[in-house]
Amino acid sequence: MSRPQPASRDRYAKFYPLATRWADNDIYGHANNVVYYAWFDTAVNRFLIECGGMQPGLDQVVGYVVASSCDYFAPVSYPDSLELGLRIERLGSKSVSWEIGVFPADAEESCATGRFTHAFVDRPSGRSAEIPAKIRAALQTLLP
Amino acid sequence: MSRPQPASRDRYAKFYPLATRWADNDIYGHANNVVYYAWFDTAVNRFLIECGGMQPGLDQVVGYVVASSCDYFAPVSYPDSLELGLRIERLGSKSVSWEIGVFPADAEESCATGRFTHAFVDRPSGRSAEIPAKIRAALQTLLP
Amino acid sequence: MSRPQPASRDRYAKFYPLATRWADNDIYGHANNVVYYAWFDTAVNRFLIECGGMQPGLDQVVGYVVASSCDYFAPVSYPDSLELGLRIERLGSKSVSWEIGVFPADAEESCATGRFTHAFVDRPSGRSAEIPAKIRAALQTLLP
Amino acid sequence: MSRPQPASRDRYAKFYPLATRWADNDIYGHANNVVYYAWFDTAVNRFLIECGGMQPGLDQVVGYVVASSCDYFAPVSYPDSLELGLRIERLGSKSVSWEIGVFPADAEESCATGRFTHAFVDRPSGRSAEIPAKIRAALQTLLP
Questions:
Q1: Which residues of C have a CB under 8 Å from any CB of D?
Q2: D69: which of A14, A19, A50, A69 fits an S-S bond (Cβ 3.0–4.6 Å)?
Q3: Which residues contact A11 (CB under 8 A, 6 or more apart)?
């Protein structure tokens, strides 16, 4: 397996700004490995809410994260400003795999790449479910 | 004691934007009471870094929080955009008391008011210390 | 106003263990002021669930935090083990005020004192509500 | 690639208890995907501190996380009690790859599997560094 590499901005279809917080830094003065995943959730759910009509707490069919990963290439620190690029890696009938590129505000190359898979579930029954139509339409705009 | 009340924007000397995150919401769909304090840290330390020359991890004299409090007037939720207003309540020789107003981006009245006190300490000795001159100069710009 | 002081264990009616986490420490190597409030939520809600029958996400009447505060007397750090003591300061018909003492596992005196007030609300209507009977019965066991 | 599967306890060399917190749950009432990584940090760094003599903030050579991942098999929720099993997947001269199994306290099968790689770095120079001898000795006790 080749070693993961930084990506350029043209790999991603849509960007959101992400402001770091004081608590993102750990004792070493860099954003801790954990908080990147909180950033991913923030950008992806914002897309799903604003573009896909997702209503957390009201929707019957929701996406649960079944796998996630991140490769870290270079540290960032509060109070850096970041931009998160979104890309859909794979769009199935009941699941979607995201890739998120983390870019310092003035950088051409990403400092981290995240990936995670949402599997959609019907909350009342707990069963696997088709991606709702409005969310699917939004996801298709992010396909390569 | 009279009941705490929302404040208007003119009470605060300087504002910073604060973007909510997915993880700010708790099971009730509102920003959890805890995360307000993370927001306060983010705005106040940004001020200290950008305006007061604070260098976390390098400075010998640092401000430790010895007391904090918050009154919550109305809920906010991710993905709301907020603005945090800063005000100095009391500036001593070795401590400073902050007040932070939390405003939804389009609101004239605050939805929460936070307060906390930084006591400055010389890290090597652990002893109480004077506020460094550059930080003091910055703090004075926020006095009413 | 007299300066807040550490308290002894006999002030509190019930104790829960609280294990610190790596992310509790900030860049100064101490538990950050924010995470104490996450500890308070953890101990108080555990009491409400285990002793008061609270079912988060199902209950129609829930307690929202309308005010919180903390005095910090001495730092603690991951991987310290803590114990949180609970005490009811005031029990009204529609609200309850908690005091939480934070104790290092082997200490007689608290290293921090937290306080917060839960106001009970009927979620569907958003209106103020009486504390549910089962929760009230549990709260009464913590009164001084 | 075969689909990731739960593992049994005998796969792991050492276990630590992990108490969930109120803030671990997200709006869906389950521990959010992000907090698993905070749990991993907590268990692994506890091992490095208690068994490997790591002194965060003092050590010159430290382990930075360069990659992390998690597969989620079944949800858990606060106030569940968990146990985290540690295993070393690969021990190089300058890096170590961890596997962490997350087990509900009474379960034989894991509900999540995490993995991450620590690359050791000399902080003053920022250069890649050998794993310190005392940490290496501790890591070897976790090898399969």
A1: 17-19, 21-23, 25, 29, 38-39, 41-42, 45-46, 49-50, 56-57, 78-79
A2: A69
A3: A85, A87, A99, A101
Kindly state the helix (H) or strand (E) to which residue A137 belongs, with its residue range.
helix A133-140
| Cross-chain residue pair A79–B22, CB shorter than 8 Å | no
Residue-range domain boundaries for chain A: 9-140
For residues C23 and A34, is the Cβ–Cβ distance under 8 A?
Answer: yes
d(CA B23, CA D91): 34
Do residue C25 and residue A25 have CB atoms under 8 angstroms apart?
Answer: no
Helix H segments across chain C? 35-50, 133-140
Q: Counting beta carbons within 10 angstroms of the beta carbon of residue C101, is it exposed (0 to 12), middle (13 to 18) or buried (19 or more)?
A: buried
- Alpha-carbon span C37 to B117, nearest angstrom: 16
Q: What is the pLDDT of residues A23-43, one digit of tens each?
A: 999 999 999 999 999 999 999
In 3D, which of C83, C66, C96, C91 has the Cα closest to residue C7? C83
Band of the pLDDT at B6, cuts 50, 70, 90?
A: very high
CA dist., res. D45 & res. D40, Å (int):
8
Place of tokens 């060399």: D13
Please tell me the distance from the alpha carbon of residue A38 to that of residue D31, in angstroms, as a whole number: 13
- C-alpha A133 chain-centroid distance: 20
Convert chain B into a string of H (helix), E (strand) and C (coil): CCCCCCCEHHHCCEEEEEECCHHHECCCCCECCCHHHHHHHHHHHHHHHHCCCCCCCCCCEEEEEEEEEEEECCCCCCCCEEEEEEEEEEECCCEEEEEEEEEECCCCECCEEEEEEEEEEECCCCEECCCCHHHHHHHHCCCC
Query: What is residue B144's predicted lDDT score, i.e. its pLDDT?
Result: 85
Rounded to 5 degrees, φ, ψ at D96 are -140, 140
In this prediction the ipTM stands at: 0.96
CATH superfamily of the domain spanning C9-140: Hotdog Thioesterase (3.10.129.10)
Residue B104 has pLDDT above 90, yes or no: yes
Residue D109, token pair as written in the block: 């099968």
Q: Which residues contact C38 (CB under 8 A, 6 or more apart)?
A: B34, D21, D22, D23
The 3-state DSSP class for residue A39 equals helix
Q: pTM higher than 0.90, yes or no?
A: yes
Nearest CB among B28, B57, B69 relative to C68 is that of B69
- pLDDT tens digits for range B76-87: 999 999 999 999
Which residues are bridge partners to B88 per DSSP? Answer: B98
User: Both tokens of residue C85?
Assistant: 């003591």
Chain C neighbors of B61, CB-CB under 8 A: none
Which stretches of chain C sit within 8 Å of chain A by CB?
22-23, 25-27, 29, 32, 34
Query: How many interface pairs between B and D have CB atoms less than 8 angstroms apart?
Result: 18
CB atoms closer than 10 angstroms to residue B2: 4
| Residue C57 pLDDT greater than 90, yes or no | no
Residues 6+ apart with CB under 8 A from B62: B56, B120, B121, B123, C28
